[in-house]
Amino acid sequence: LCCRRCQHLQGARHTQLRQGRAQSGDPCRSRLSGVCICQCRCIRRRRLMSHQQQFEALVAVLKAAISPTEHFTLAYDAEASDFIRFNHGQVRQAGRVQQVIATFKLINDGRHANLEVTLSGDSETDTQRLTDALQQLRETLPALAKDPYLLPNTEAWQSSNVQDLPLPDSAQVVEQICELSGELDLVGFYAAGPLYRGFASSWGALGWHQANSFNFDWSLFHENGQAVKANYAGHHWNNEAFVRRFEQAREQLEFLGRPLHTLEPGQYRAYLAPAAVDEIIGMLTWGGFSAQALASKRSPLQRLYDGDTRFSPLFNVEEHVSGSLSPAFSREGYPRKDLTLIVDGQARERLVDSSSAAEYDLPANGADYGEGPSALDIAGGSLELDQVLEKLGTGLYISNLWYLNFSDRAAARLTGMTRFATFWVEEGRIVAPVSTMRF
């Protein structure tokens, strides 16, 4: 939608769409998709506000609407992301997702309830939606019991963090991906764009967080149906790093054409690639660092925190909030800082939300409901990627894992299967792919 003065201005280029197998000379040739927004940032004569301005305007509306006995918190979550899907190395679907969700909590006399409100970006419409939500919550609260573990943060604080590193042009990324894939059977998706997070309360808290990021997740399929899965994500696109990651996946793909190597049940020396480690750590975060789970003896890391066991002294983990995609404040309104969870293989801090703080008399440290990490950081080691096979010697190179579950949660024992490219290595060289294994 454009005003007249910008109808003839050339807008930004958008992702190229292929209609079936249409070629450039075909009547149904490739098209460029896009919606032009005029440079004066107005639609139908209404000026568009930034996400931060929209958020602060809604906060002002709520502050003016609540009664002296009422309090509120407002969490704001928004994104504006490009999504591009690939199949057989070509773009098959492209689009842009823009969404805004506000989580509005009303508190009065020890009772609280919350609603999620989808926002449109139009100030009048969103004000009405929030006003309706306020009325609905007012009608709900009298029917609820008082929460003995309600512990809102009543301190006034301010926080602002805008990470505006420029993202690569999506059209250029698509061109590079298609050029690298060539005739390979590549399947995957690319997503990129800014994320917005905000928090405000009637006690004077106001936080804003904005960060750009991208994620390219793809698989290269061999003609025999086997595949290599890879990923490249971050804040800053580095062409050289991406090419190295792609070439590594391409090299592994070539080994999938060899006859499968079957192993007998037993114990083997193994290297777990970062994606495989991520699957394991993801399981351990299911209550692993949660103060509530640890207090109720339901944490998979219970023995670690009780001091009955420890990891390798080389293993260090922290919740690294600073500089991450995660905001420096929680959805409950508590400021967050970096937390040291595991040092030299031994347990240290834990994640504490407001309910656990009230129930177990602990200081809240900014964990959200569920007390799971959102910016987990494992300290790197000294092994370079190009030395992995040499250091492994003879054993298993495991790229991915799937179907993980606990076989003994209290002891943090896992069961699962290998997935995608798992190889048998002898004397520092990949010999053959390994058939799917359960452990």
From TrEMBL:
Pfam families registered for this protein in UniProt: PmbA_TldD_3rd
Domain of life assignment: Bacteria
Domain Metalloprotease TldD/E C-terminal: 265-438
One Gene Ontology term of the molecular function aspect: metallopeptidase activity
BP GO annotations: proteolysis
Full protein name: Metalloprotease TldD/E C-terminal domain-containing protein
Species name: Pseudomonas syringae pv. maculicola
UniProt lineage: Bacteria, Pseudomonadati, Pseudomonadota, Gammaproteobacteria, Pseudomonadales
